[in-house]
Specification:
eight-stranded parallel β-barrel, 10 strands, two-stranded antiparallel ribbon, single chain
Length: 367
C-alpha cells in the first residue's frame, strides 16, 4: 500500500511539473513568440558538441527557433557538384532535427540567395560551378583588395533574371527543407550591393527595387506551392539615406522601395548590431511579421529584447501580433563560437556573440 501511495505521489508530482512547464511555455509564447538563434550549420567534426549545445543550453533557456546557415555544407543529391568537400550527411541533419523536435525547437535551414555569392577573394560554389549566373562577371574576386575598392566589390550576386538559375537553387531549397522536415526557409538576401548592374545583359537599366522584389516574390511563391514560408533579412528594405543607417544595415541603392512590392507573409529578420534601432515598427506597420536580431553587444541585445516586449505590450492587437520576438545572430564559425562559449577564458574579443547569447539566455530565464 505504501509503495502504491509513493508511486502515486511521484506520478502526481511529475504530471504537475509537466503541466507547469507547459503553462510556462504558453506564457512565454504569449509575450515573446519567437526566441531564436541564427548560426552556421556545424562541421561534421563539431556535430556532437553542437547537439549537446542545443540540448543543454538552448532548450533549457526556452529557445524555440534555430536558423542554420547551411549553404553548401550538405550532401546534396540534386546537385552534388555544389556541395562542400566534407558536408553534413542526411543522417547528420536528422540528428539535429531529432534533438530540436524533442525540445520544441523549430529548424529553419538557410541558403544565401541572390547576394553573398562570394567572400573576399573566394567565389562561392554556385558562381564557381555556374559562372554564367554571375551578375558582374567583369569583376574578379581574386582582385578583391578590401573595402572600399574601385569595383564596389563586397560580395558577388547571381543574376535574378538568368533563365536557369532558379532551376538549380530551387532544387537545393526543396531538398534541404525536406531533409530538415520544416515548413520554413531562410533565403538570406542581405547586403545585396550588386543588382541591376549596367553591364548585365538582362538587368541593365531595370529598377533595382523591382528586381529585388521580383526575386523575393519568385522564391516566396515557390515555397508557398508546398506550404512553406520565406524568411529574409530586412536591411535591403530600409531606406539608408532617409533613416541615416547607411549602406550596411539599410539600402543606398534604391532597393528599399521593394518593401511595398513583396508578399506580406514574408517573415522579416530585422538586424541591427551597434544600436537598438527600432525599424521593427516600420516592418510591422507595413504588415510583416518581424523579429529583431542582435549580434555581439550584450547591452544592445538586452535593449532590443526589452523594446520588443514593450512593443508587444503597448501596441494595438494587430500590430502586437506582428512583433514576433528576438533572434540572436552568430557570424563566426560555429566550431569557434562553441569553443568560446564553453571556454570563456579563450574569448578575448571585446565584442562577443558568445557573451551576448549567454546574456540573452539569462534574460530569457528571467521571463
Amino acid at each position: 500500500m505504501r509503495i502504491r501511495t509513493l508511486f502515486f505521489i511521484i506520478a502526481l508530482a511529475a504530471i504537475t511539473a509537466m503541466l507547469r512547464g507547459q503553462e510556462y511555455k504558453r506564457y512565454l509564447d504569449s509575450i515573446l513568440p519567437v526566441r531564436g538563434l541564427a548560426i552556421a550549420a556545424p562541421s561534421v567534426k563539431g556535430l556532437d558538441t553542437f547537439l549537446k549545445f542545443i540540448g543543454e543550453e538552448l532548450a533549457p533557456a526556452n529557445f524555440n527557433m534555430l536558423i542554420l546557415r547551411v549553404d553548401w555544407n550538405y550532401d546534396y543529391k540534386s546537385h552534388p557538384e555544389l556541395r562542400d568537400s566534407n558536408p553534413l550527411k542526411e543522417a547528420d541533419v536528422k540528428k539535429i532535427v531529432d534533438v530540436c523536435l524533442r525540445h520544441g525547437i523549430k529548424t529553419v535551414p538557410q541558403i544565401n540567395l541572390l547576394g553573398h555569392q562570394s567572400w573576399a577573394k573566394n567565389t562561392g560554389n554556385l558562381l564557381r560551378v555556374y559562372p554564367e549566373f554571375d551578375e558582374t562577371p567583369h569583376v574578379k574576386t581574386e582582385d578583391y583588395s578590401g573595402w572600399p575598392n574601385p569595383d564596389g566589390l563586397y560580395c558577388k550576386s547571381y543574376c535574378p533574371l538568368h533563365p536557369d538559375v532558379h532551376k538549380i537553387v530551387f532544387a537545393l531549397v526543396d531538398e534541404l527543407t525536406e531533409a530538415f522536415e520544416t515548413n520554413m526557409f531562410h533565403a538570406g538576401m542581405d547586403e545585396v550591393f550588386y543588382i541591376g548592374d549596367p553591364k548585365c545583359p538582362r538587368c541593365s537599366g531595370r529598377d533595382k527595387a523591382e528586381l529585388y522584389a521580383g526575386e523575393v516574390t519568385v522564391i516566396h511563391n515557390h515555397l508557398a506551392e508546398s506550404g512553406k514560408r520565406l524568411m529574409i533579412w530586412g536591411d535591403r528594405l530600409i531606406d539608408g539615406k532617409t533613416t541615416g543607417m547607411g549602406e550596411w544595415e539599410a539600402s543606398m541603392n534604391n532597393t528599399h522601395r521593394a518593401i511595398d512590392m513583396i508578399p506580406k507573409d514574408v517573415f522579416i529578420c530585422d538586424w541591427h548590431y551597434e544600436r537598438p534601432d527600432q525599424t521593427a515598427v516600420l516592418f510591422a506597420s507595413k504588415g510583416f511579421d518581424v523579429a529583431t536580431c542582435p549580434w555581439r553587444r550584450p547591452e544592445v541585445a538586452v535593449e532590443q529584447l526589452n523594446d520588443m516586449l514593450r512593443l508587444r505590450k503597448n501596441s494595438s492587437e494587430q500590430m502586437s501580433a506582428r512583433f514576433q520576438g528576438i533572434i540572436e545572430t552568430v557570424w563566426s564559425g560555429t566550431d569557434a563560437f562553441l569553443r568560446n562559449y564553453y571556454s570563456p577564458e579563450q574569448d578575448t574579443q571585446p565584442l562577443s556573440d558568445a557573451r551576448t547569447l549567454k546574456k540573452l539566455i539569462e534574460e530569457f530565464k528571467k521571463l
